[in-house]
Specification:
formyl-coa transferase, domain 3, three-stranded antiparallel beta sheet
Amino acid sequence: MSLRPAPLTGIRVLDLTRVLAGPWCTQNLADLGAEVIKIERPGAGDDTRGWGPPYLKDAHGKDTTEAAYYASANRNKQSVAIDIATERGAGLVRELSRQCDILVENFKVGGLRKYGLDYESIKAINPALIYCSITGFGQTGPYASRPGYDFMIQGMGGLMSITGERDDLPGGGPQKAGVAVADLMTGMYSTVGILAALHERGRSGLGQHIDMALLDCQVAMLANQNLNYLTTGVAPRRAGNAHQNLVPYQVFAAADGHLIVAVGNDTQFKAYCHVIGRPALSDDMRFKTNSNRVIHREILIPLLTEAMKAQARDYWLEALERVGVPAGPINTIEQVYQNPQVKARGMQQTLPHSSAGQAPVGASPLRFSASPVNYRHAAPLLGEHTQQVLRERLGLSDEEIQELTQ
């Protein structure tokens, strides 16, 4: 079967974002084939360029100056170093916006107005442009002017109230997630919004403003926990590695380590009880259905905990897999990339990089049968494409470019 171009081939994106939420969104668009022009501050660039170590390694195993954090969210993009605080620089970005389909920015509310780069100013020169603003709290409301960072949003948005060990157990207390999930989910929601607006533009011929807020996205992603509260009026609390609505669905200690058992229905529970040598538990009316298991959690879990100590982790994993009960190990990230399924799915890629030669990247999870994700190059050096973009897109001469970059 012949492959078709990546889905967003021919779409051009002007990227005025930095750190993670915005760059994660624009990296998604770049992976899908869009041409992404990332505007960065001359001499400094995206804040995350300085968020190291670790740094990418060169061919001799020595550190480059390219932070791994920056590299994680900026592949497939072109870096153009322009100072938008100058009249000339802002003017060049406005000219670039005329040629773009999408603009994504994460400046504070109103921060781009003084440069003539706010939505209303850009809409006046390119009414078909889709303009996505990403902030901590959105363009409206009493907190609109506040800065917002992932860690504080995880706390403010309720995630940390349900993450971490129970308060009455050792190590109890609020805990953030191991990656910046509020940023990442905002980047993902922003991608969805932009693609929807792009589809709508096919009917109307017009762009629009998309207002994305980290806090909104954090609240939305509470999912079933939102409804646990909204239907009862009782706020869920931290449950450690247990599940609020399923039992057993948690970490258990085996004789030589730990594993996750994730029983999703009553049939699986019956099979699980037979494997661990406690078949009578699945016929006990207190435990026969999931709703009863949730109610009688404090009685059931100690019985299961004791049974799980009888065998080694791998014994349980193999036995549970044979009967179709979901279970898995708790891997380090090193073990993740050694996993045969992760390898088979190509979740690590290597892309050309201007100073490292070759750079590892974590792959996109998107799989298309006919128009696959487009891996072109790793994250760019600061200003690597300034001359190319200004010459090809805006027709600037070498002399004009030299004046700008001095």
